[in-house]
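User: Sequence for Riboflavin synthase below. Tokens please.
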Amino acid sequence: MFTGIIEATGNVVKIEKNETNIDFTLSCPFTQELKIDQSLAHNGCCLTVVEINGNQYKVTAINETLEKTNLGHWSVGTEVNLERCLKFEGRLDGHVVQGHVDKTGIVEHIENLNGSYVITISYEESDEYTTVPQGSITLNGTSLTVAESGKNKFSVAIIPYTWEFTNMKHLKKGDVVNLEFDIIGKYVAKLLKKQYVI
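Assistant: Structure tokens for Riboflavin synthase:
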């Protein structure tokens, strides 16, 4: 379980094909605090630490993960948003994030508002996922508030701190981003769909 509040960014230092899987080696500021089997969200995708070597660690993405996320677009040097799993002894600053990416979206537009930024994202049509204004959305692992919501499209406003502290500053039109929709909204959509079927 995560909150969507990014702790730090890391960098991909090695990519190795492992049958249908891909092993990613990354470095980050808190590598020394990690342990084998620990869950760590990478751009919002929960991966397990399988190896630690000095200031680098390794995670494995299976084929299903590669198909649902933007991890297959990574290259050596890619900056990745990182968050360790939630400790149940502090404040929940973001929202409930599972680390299970629902689908990817495409950056349609980025607007610089002289200090803040508005990013518009579109995603493939689906009756399972929706957004609402002032609702929660996770974009590359970052907990954000929906500013405007449309059909298979939404926008989020980014404050300067989030822009600089995460990998948001590297986004450009056409980029693929990981999306995790609000868990409560997903349950409501599922129940409504079930009700109409009955």
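Residues 183-197 form the longest helix (15 residues).
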